Amino acid sequence: MALPGLVCANGHANSPERLACRLCAAPLSGPTRTVARPPLGAVAVSTGEGFVLDRTAVIGRRPRASRVSGSDVPQLITVPSPQQDISRSHLELRLEGWHVVALDLGTTNGTTLHREGYEPLRLRPREGVVLHDGDLLDLGDEVHLTYGEKS
Ligand SMILES: [Zn+2]
């Protein structure tokens, strides 16, 4: 996907809203230009696995893609849920422009967002929340995901 961005002296593409490169902290200035969207970070799963956010991800105990729009074929991430607290398709992490949006897929047991400095927030079903670096998403069954914007 191509979108307007700012490129640092080391060639990293960034959101035009940033003042410093998310990867190397070099200052960003000058006109925006059209860039290919880089991966918007990565997710560490509490099971020890992880994945890169180069496209939408659907996470669950038996995830399925509900819809496939154009070239953005979601990656399906299976997590263990011995108590079946986690729904089959539990959470979607969607790339929207330069943002990563977390969406609880109307699950039975819900998803809780833990953000530094805030009270834990239970996501409303199908209502997207833009993730920040370091956010932790609790899916239940002792499985959580940690988002990092540096991939
Ligand atoms: Zn950079």
Overview of the structural elements:
With 151 residues, the protein is mostly beta strands. The chain folds into two domains: 1-37, no CATH class; 42-148, Tumour Suppressor Smad4 (Sandwich). The chain has no helices and 14 strands. The strands form three sheets. The protein has a six-stranded antiparallel beta sheet, with no helix packed on it. A hairpin with a 2-residue loop joins strand 13 (136-140) and strand 14 (143-148). The two termini are 18 Å apart. Bound molecules: zinc ion (ZN). Zinc ion (ZN) is lined by residues 8, 10, 12, 21, 23-24, 26. Residues 8, 10, 12, 21, 23-24, 26 line the site of zinc ion (ZN). Residues 57-118 form the FHA domain. This is FHA domain-containing protein. Keywords: Phosphoprotein. Pfam families: FHA (PF00498).
Mean pLDDT: 94
Main β-sheet: number of strands, strand sense, barrel status?
A: 6 strands, antiparallel
Overall geometry? globular
Bound small molecules, by name, code or SMILES, are: zinc ion
Helix share bin: under 10%
Overall structural domain count = 2
Strand content: 35-45%
Count of runs of 4 or more consecutive helical residues? 0
Beta strands, count:
14
- The CATH topology name of the largest domain reads Tumour Suppressor Smad4
Q: Determine and state the CATH class of the largest domain.
A: Mainly Beta
C-alpha-based Rg, rounded:
16 Å
Structural classification: mainly beta
Q: What CATH architecture of the largest domain would you give?
A: Sandwich
**Strand order of the main beta sheet, please?**
5-4-14-13-10-11
H/E element order: EEEEEEEEEEEEEE
Task: State the end-to-end CA separation.
Answer: 18 Å
User: Which stretches are low in confidence, meaning pLDDT under 50 for 5 or more residues running?
Assistant: none
Organism: Brachybacterium paraconglomeratum
Keywords: Phosphoprotein
Domain FHA: 57-118
Pfam family, one: FHA
